[in-house]
Write a structure and sequence with these properties.
379 residues, 15% strand, single chain, four-stranded antiparallel sheet, seven-stranded mixed sheet, alpha/beta
Length: 379
């Protein structure tokens, strides 16, 4: 991975372990955004047909990221929350229906479902802290369960879910299966053909190393037909671009969820970021991410004052490594996190724990020295 170091010319002394929050742009992404800005300044939209080709190429890239059957199943949204809202308010609910999720979800994958309580829909949150998190979720399903929604990797604990087990159950019991894949896409290989998800949502700005303000929304053709539309415009019609046509119909593809003009700046940026994954290969990226996570876990386990939160089982974690200091309370962890940030170790504090999230290129060698210096200053 040293061959890719030039793509990430981080400031000297900065240790960036925060891709579960906001990822670092590769150099090629900065260059693509700069070139697109220059083109807009010098030529306006004279090259718009070429921009549309970049957009279509991005959809094909996202198809490959998911191992989806067709790029027509992928819509481009503003963010994960918008995509989840399209599902929540596109489905027709009946009073007494329920949704099953976990008790570790990021608010995006909780608030939108809680908001359906006014329609008589119950949100059931399974405790997935035990040895069988999938079993805990499935135990909450019954004949009135319409949808099961879960993060592929939990944002705070770093717990990696077995999506295949959940997907098989949902398929057998006619339950819609929604996956928030924001903490795995770009870090791990993802396979729609194995997990049978009806919906997959994810922002671009974390492990995919892309911009904020752009997200993918996958929907299978069958599930897509169950979603009513809340937004309409020129871009979501079947004959897009035929502005003189007075009659219109909803696009058959997932473009039906894109009512207006696309985020072309974000599209060019994410297209560039994904080209890096294409050059390296997701198998190699995943191996490097997991190697760094495992090295961090060994480091945590070797430090007597630290307690690992993330499951060490190789099938139960991805790139997130969360841990606690045994003698610190929640306030103490916040103070520790602030000190680490001041020292140039960019990380996060989530659920009362310090969260490290390195990517494939991350240099972990300076970590021990910075950690020792910070801990000494706080004692």
């Amino acid at each position: 991975m040293r061959a890719w170091a030039d793509e990430f010319p981080l400031d000297e002394g900065l240790i960036y372990l925060n891709h579960a929050a906001v990822g670092v742009w590769p150099r090629r992404t900065r260059d693509a955004v700069s070139a697109f800005a220059d083109e807009n300044m010098y030529r306006g939209a004279a090259g718009y047909p070429a921009w549309l080709k970049v957009e279509q190429r991005l959809r094909e890239q996202l198809k490959a990221v998911l191992n989806a059957e067709s790029a027509d199943d992928i819509a481009l949204c503003k963010n994960t929350s918008e995509a989840l809202s399209l599902i929540a308010y596109g489905l027709t609910w009946r009073a007494g229906d329920n949704i099953v999720t976990s008790n570790q979800e990021f608010p995006s994958n909780r608030i939108v479902w809680e908001s359906l309580s006014r329609a008589g829909v119950e949100l059931r949150q399974a405790d997935i802290s035990g040895d069988d998190p999938e079993g805990a979720m499935l135990a909450m399903c019954d004949a009135r369960t319409r949808l099961l929604t879960v993060s592929s990797v939990q944002y705070a604990s770093g717990l990696r879910m077995n999506l295949e087990v959940l997907g098989d159950y949902c398929r057998e019991h006619s339950v819609l299966f929604c996956v928030d894949a924001i903490q795995s896409l770009g870090a791990l290989k993802f396979d729609l053909q194995q997990c049978h998800a009806d919906f997959v949502v994810a922002d671009a700005h974390k492990w995919l190393l892309g911009p904020e303000g752009l997200a993918l929304f996958y929907s299978s053709a069958e599930a897509r037909e169950q979603l009513g539309l809340q937004q309409y415009g020129w871009h979501m019609v079947e004959h897009v671009g035929d502005f003189d046509r007075l009659t219109w119909s909803i696009a058959d593809s997932a473009r039906r969820f894109e009512p207006g003009s696309p985020n072309m700046l974000g599209i060019h940026a994410l297209h560039a970021s994904l080209s890096l994954f294409e050059d390296i290969g997701m198998a190699a990226v995943e191996a490097e991410v997991l190697d760094r996570a495992n090295r961090l876990m060994r480091w945590v386990e070797d430090e007597a004052e630290l307690q690992l939160v993330t499951p060490p089982d190789s099938l139960r974690h991805a790139g997130i490594v969360s841990f606690r200091c045994r003698e610190l309370d929640a306030v103490g962890h916040m103070q520790l996190w602030q000190a680490l940030m001041r020292a140039g170790l960019i990380c996060a504090c989530r659920a009362g724990a310090i969260r490290f999230s390195p990517h494939f290129y991350s240099n972990l060698e300076p970590l021990a020295g910075v950690w020792s210096q910070v801990r000494s200053s706080l004692r």
